Amino acid sequence: MARKLINMEGEKFGRWTVGKQVENDRRCNTRWLCSCFCGEVRPVRADDLRSGKSKSCGCNSDFRLRNLGLQIIHGDSKSTEYKRWCDMKKRCLMQRMVIMIITENGGLQFALDG
User: Fold this and answer.
1) Cβ–Cβ < 8 Å for 80, 102
2) What are the tens digits of pLDDT across the range 21-54?
3) Which 3 state secondary structure label does DSSP give 81?
């Protein structure tokens, strides 16, 4: 027996506004093209919208963290300096040392504890 399609076009779920129906996913779940409050547009499963599992594209959590004064993305994740920092952090965490010092101008200084 085929499932009855519920027309969700124009409805709001969290920060999503539902647009037109798009192609079902590989498991035959109904998907709708939704636009987020921030402007992001992407297909979202209908059951995720109705259950509240999907409330936004993820911009809401970024927005909340920025309001708390926290920076999420620094833009240097592909730099060699950042890769060295990650490797050094791994080594120090294995030895339980704290090494990061953030300076007043936002720069980083490295110091070994112990």
Assistant:
1) no
2) 999 888 888 899 999 988 899 999 999 999 999 9
3) helix
Query: Do the beta carbons of residue 110 and residue 99 sit within 8 Å?
Result: yes
User: Which residue, among 60, 40, 62, 63, has the nearest Cα to 52 in the 3D structure?
Assistant: 60
Q: Where are the domains of the chain?
A: 12-67, 80-110
- Overall pTM > 0.85: no
Q: Which residues contact 108 (CB under 8 A, 6 or more apart)?
A: 85, 100, 101, 102
Is the separation of the CB atoms in 18 and 39 below 8 Å? no
Q: How far apart are CA 106 and CA 37, in angstroms?
A: 31
